[in-house]
Hints:
This protein is an all-alpha fold and 212 residues long. Helix content is 69%, strand content 0%. It is built from 9 helices and no strands. It has helices at residues 3-7, 31-53, 60-67, 71-77, 81-91, 104-133, 137-164, 173-191, 196-210. It starts with a helix and ends with a helix.
Amino acid sequence: MSDDAALLPKPGVAKPGVAKPGVETPSVQTPGAQKSGTVALILSTTLDILRTKGPAAVNIEAVSAASGIAKTTIYRRYENRDALLEAAILSVVINPVPPADTAYIEQLRWVIRQSRDGVENILGMGGVSAILAGQDRQFMDLIRGMLVPWIALVRNLLVAGVASGELREDVDVDVALNFILGSSLGEFIRVGTVSDDWSERVLTMVWRMVGP
């Protein structure tokens, strides 16, 4: 067989880039898209393990086994378990930006729902259990660091509400802050989930306590 013959497509096999009549040509992912998809799968798998089993169960081997991605591929992106866990948590932490040009009560509703989402969609029962046990110092430090800007945002919102007259002037800001942050955590521990209805009930109670 000549070299030219070796380059010819076999019978019934379309030439590259030429679609057969009636047959869709599969899309080809670019290297960048493939890399992005790999990273997304690594991080989502890490979060799944965190939510269901806790931070102690998160390691390169476990993520590799659950995702089907080779350990070497994961190690190329994340030096160790701590770096992987941090990247996974930060991947779903959005810079806190309250809705603009909305009524004050809508901003309160937003922070309550965001607090709910953090407990349910980031921590899950595994993460919450680890926080209550307090046995993973690195994880605790990571969560505290993640919460710093969020706590500041909620506190500033309450302070601004008092200053503008949206809230009563005798409001204990720190107590209100802890109520907002802790209500979703308490409900999740009690029943294992936090519903939209619960968030609305929290908002109603908060408004009764601090509203004008």
